[in-house]
TrEMBL record:
The active site is at 22 (proton acceptor), 99 (proton donor). This is 3-dehydroquinate dehydratase. Catalyzes a trans-dehydration via an enolate intermediate. The record marks 17 as: Transition state stabilizer. The gene is aroQ. It catalyses: 3-dehydroquinate = 3-dehydroshikimate + H2O. It comes from the Bacteria. Belongs to the type-II 3-dehydroquinase family. Pfam families: DHquinase_II. Pathway: Metabolic intermediate biosynthesis; chorismate biosynthesis; chorismate from D-erythrose 4-phosphate and phosphoenolpyruvate: step 3/7. Its EC number is 4.2.1.10. Keywords: Amino-acid biosynthesis, Aromatic amino acid biosynthesis, Lyase. Substrate binds at residues 73, 79, 86, 100-101, 110.
């Protein structure tokens, strides 16, 4: 089985973008951390990033037949996208929402998440380690803990 690790806008710049907030590690490091959690539990990870909302929605639709669970950092779409929430509501497997930064310590517009209405759980402020913990939780929810 496969876990999708989906990343929204500007996260292609992870490691270069506002490193005081998001750190120096890259999405390649995220992928390695997630694979290290999932692999020994018999699961594969597929990590993707897009700056295009429709592409993200298409990937959530694809997950309906291609992924047993989803770890998602929706980035700015967290706070804006009813369309992404609707796509996730059409997905049946477990979903964990991840934010690298502690969104609750930041601007008020980051305090609300549409995706949280769907997610089994939310991790914020633990840096990229949050992705590893989220992947591990998906494994547990799939009975592969
Ligand atoms: C983020 C937090 C969002 O508010 C922001 O728009 C991002 C990244 C995070 O990982 O901390 O792009 O999702």
């Amino acid at each position: 089985d496969t876990i999708f690790i989906l990343n929204g806008p500007n996260l292609n710049l992870l490691g270069q973008r506002e490193p005081q907030i998001y750190g120096h590690e890259t999405l390649a490091d995220v992928e390695a951390l997630c694979a290290a959690e999932a692999g020994p539990r018999g699961l594969k990870v597929v990590l993707r990033q897009t700056n295009h909302e429709g592409e993200m929605i298409d990937w959530v639709h694809e997950a309906r037949h291609a992924a047993a669970g989803i770890v998602i950092n929706p980035a700015a779409w967290t706070h804006t996208s009813v369309a992404l929430l609707d796509a996730l509501n059409a997905y049946e497997g477990p979903v964990i929402e991840v934010h690298i930064s502690n969104v609750h310590k930041r601007e008020a517009f980051r305090h609300h998440s549409y995706v949280s209405l769907r997610a089994e759980g939310v991790i914020a402020g633990l840096g990229i380690e949050g992705y590893a913990l989220a992947t591990r939780r998906i494994c547990t929810l799939l009975g592969r803990g």
